[in-house]
Structure formats: C-alpha cells, structure tokens
Design goal:
homodimer; alpha+beta; 8 helices; 2 domains; four-stranded antiparallel beta sheet; Jelly Rolls; 200 residues; 46% helix
C-alpha cells in the first residue's frame, strides 16, 4: 500500500495548515499497518504506545465487562485518528479494545514521536489541540444522545453518520453502540421500514 | 473579592509554564463574577460566549429531558475550567445548563479573547491542548464507570473525588450523577454505613 499522502495532507490541512517541511517530517514518522478483519489494534489492559490514522476500512472501540459482555463505544472511519487516547495521555493500561471490522489500512506513529513534534513547530501543538477538542465534542454529543434521545432517534443518527459503512457493521454491534438489545434494534428497524424512511 | 492570582498562576503553571508577561495579559482579560447558590452560569439553549475559572464554590452541569427530568453530567470545583465547551467550539446552543450549588466565585473570560491568546504565544496553545485533553480523559473515565462499574463502586469513587464538597450536594443530585434513583442511592448508603466504610 502506498498511502495517498496528498489526500491525507489535505484532510489535516483542513483542520490547520501544516507547512510542507513539517509534513515531510511527519511522513518520516509514519509506517503503514494493515489490519485484517477482526484483528486488534490494541486490547484492553495493554498500555498504548501508538496513534494511527485510518486510511481505509472501519474499526470499533469497545469495552468488555467482567462478565465478558461487550459495549461498543465508537467507530473509526477514513482519515480519523485511532488511539486509546486516555491510555497514551495517562500512560495507563487501556480500558478498551480497538478492532478492525473490515480489512483496514492504517498509518502507525509512535505517540512519543508525535508528541515531540509539539516542541518542533506550533502547527502540531495546534493540531493536537484541535484533535483533542474534536474528540471531546464527539464524546459530549454521544453522552447527550444516550441520556436524552430515544433509541429510534439514536439509530437514525447512527445511519446518517456512518452511512454506507453501516452495512458492514453486524447488527449486534450496532445495538451495543446504541445501548439497546439486538431484539429492540430489530423492532426499530421493522418500524422504520414500514414508515419508508432512509433505512428501508 | 480579590482573586488569589498567585494560587491560580501556580495551578495553571502546574499544567504548563506561563511566562509572567503572558500572565499579565491573561489577567487583563478576566473579570470577577459571583454566583449566588442556584444561580446559572449558562442555561441549555443559550450559546456560550464565556469560559470561567472556579475560584471557590461548587457547580453542576446538567441536562434536562423534554419531560423536565434532570441528569447531572458533572461537577466543577476550585481551579477547574467552567464552560459549555462544545457550545463554544461549535458556536451552537448549549445542550446543558451550569448552575452554582453553593455561592461561587468565578473569573470570567470571553472565549473570543481567550482564543486570541493562541496566536499570541505558544504557551496558550499548549494550555488549550492540555485542558481539552484533560476534559476528554475525564469524560472517557466517566463513560467507562457508567458502562462497567456497579452503582456502589461509582458512589465510592464520587466520594473520593469530591470529598468534603459531597456534603453540599443534595442526594437527588448525586443519584442523578450516578445514573440511579434516589431510593437506590439510599440503599447503597445504608449498606456502606453498615460496613463502616469511609462514608459512615
């Protein structure tokens, strides 16, 4: 795989401008990593050392309860950062696992190396701030949806957000992400199909 | 009220060093704001314009459902930042309200002014990144606790985290923060008292 560096540079530049010399330095840090479907990027209990950028594919972040039940906390798609971010920031074991749901192409970067960029040029400090802010907003939106929206509204938002990729996510994973049982999700899907909404 | 600038400077310096000239610029932006018990900093539906620093007191951040039920999402104590941060970052109405639970002294700063500091000196960019990272870690920890820990363990963590201040938080607010009913919380408290744990 040869990463499409231009598309990636454009995606990151849309957040904050990265001068060409800095972009060249960044490219030196990044190594390609292919994950086959069902392979893990990190497992709960391991301490994260890397961040990655998703070039293609689809991944899930999930918690495992002491009883072995799984809860999907979020999904990652193209051009999003992938990391057990709290684990990296606090140098503590990850609370959750990250697994590829389809064959996925990633760019792997040691977090230590990425962090060293902060002292090299302000653009990286700014990128770090913007990514942390985005992650925070994403989590706050999810918290609100879980607390305030009924399951059907949450499912429609899920379809809107993950669009075509939603077809690759098994229904029990979707149900777990929505915080409902697979049976409740089937009921919602039947109801929506009868109404003739986008999911039909 | 005269803010204890030295204590505040020390608290922020513990995150990242702020040079004296930058600290003077920051002080020019900040105005004292006293909130009486039960007064609001922001209400759901309003678009945030300010961030604040808590100098003393205790505040809660809470959601209101369409039925008028309230869910406490978090609390804010001394030297923590207070803001409807997603509202500020996305320039959208706040999803939640922030209310003082005790008389509280704040320092108020227009977010526009704070953001202008980012271009002035790297120390502010770094502070912005670190605060966003801390907020993110805090939310991820809370998500994990809600998904994986039983209510009793969540209550013990709450006591550990908010210590002495917990006495100022009415029990129905604590129950709402823990995601349980006040009746369930009373049961947990009785059980802990019988065991002779720190809450007794």
């Amino acid at each position: 795989m040869t990463p499409d560096w231009n598309a990636l540079h454009a995606a990151i530049n849309a957040l904050t401008p990265i001068p060409d010399t800095e972009w060249e330095a960044f490219k030196q840090l990044a190594a390609p990593l292919n994950l086959a479907r069902h392979e893990h990027f990190i497992r709960a209990g391991e301490t994260g050392q890397h961040i990655a950028l998703c070039l293609s594919g689809l991944l899930r972040l999930y918690y495992t309860t002491p009883d072995g039940d799984e809860f999907n906390k979020s999904f990652c798609v193209r051009h999003e950062f992938i990391a057990s971010y709290s684990s990296l920031l606090t140098d503590a074991p990850s609370f959750f696992s990250i697994q590829a749901l389809t064959d996925s192409e990633l760019l792997l970067i040691r977090f230590r190396d990425f962090r060293a960029l902060y002292d090299r040029h302000t653009c990286w400090e700014r990128l770090g701030r913007l990514v942390a802010e985005q992650l925070f907003v994403k989590k706050e939106i999810r918290e609100r949806e879980l607390l305030l929206l009924p399951a059907e509204a949450r499912y429609l938002l899920f379809l809107e957000r993950y669009g075509r990729l939603a077809a690759h996510i098994p229904l029990y994973h979707v149900a777990s992400y929505l915080g409902i049982t697979p049976v409740a999700l089937s009921r919602i899907r039947r109801k929506i199909t009868r109404k003739g909404s986008p999911a039909s």
